[in-house]
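New to this. Please check this fold:
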Amino acid sequence: MSRTFARPAAALLASLLLLTVLGGLAQATSQLDLARRHRAALTRTILGIRKEQRRDTSVLRAQVNSTTRLLMSGIGKISSIDDGRRRGFRDLLRHQRHRAASRIRAIQHRSLRHLRTLTRRREAVAAWIERWGILQQCPVRGPVTISDDFGVLISKPHVPVHVHEGNDMAAATGTPIVAPFAGTATAVPNGLGGLAVKVTGELGYVYNAHLSAYGRLGTVGTGAVIGYVGSTGDAGSSHDHFEWHPGGGPAVDPHPYLAISCG
């Protein structure tokens, strides 16, 4: 998975980076932050276009109503004998109404076409966030180096041979580990992982091992500190062993999601 995720992610990210440079979006700390900012910018633009459309349409209609009142007043003052001038006023009134209606239709057509394009872009960004933004925050809050080592065969003295089911996130001892999404944090200490904590959310659960200490347990929100990086259990150095279990099933490679959430 870590090899294939780059294609859809990179295509959208290239677009987002271009918009950041040209549109002056604030710097983001991760690809996920950048996507969220882009979605928010698209929403503001869509709302602005709708507001401008209503304003322009209202101005044109007010102009038509004003012109109509003036012309109708002029028609009422003209003698019934002067039928030619009456017809001239009526023709002018029809022309003004037709012209204003045409301009209103043109404004609505341009706005609708632009809105459709922007809405499709916003939907694409939202779909990308939903697909790749499962980890709403980087699990390690601070400088971190992420190893792309899912599936590596681990063979160490005094440790059963096993397949590495996560990514090692190297960071200084004591660096906060946070809940990447809202859910329930549970302490699950064990011989191999040492102090470990699991956060279960709507889409599955994450597992963090080798903590130096626990943080908040129980019901947690996104970003709550649930522990601290350490080297308990079978850990050669200070790091957070991180696993992602979608739907509560077997672990899958978390690297694509970490790469997006951690920048």
Remarks:
- The chain has a mean pLDDT of 83.
- The longest strand covers residues 204-214.
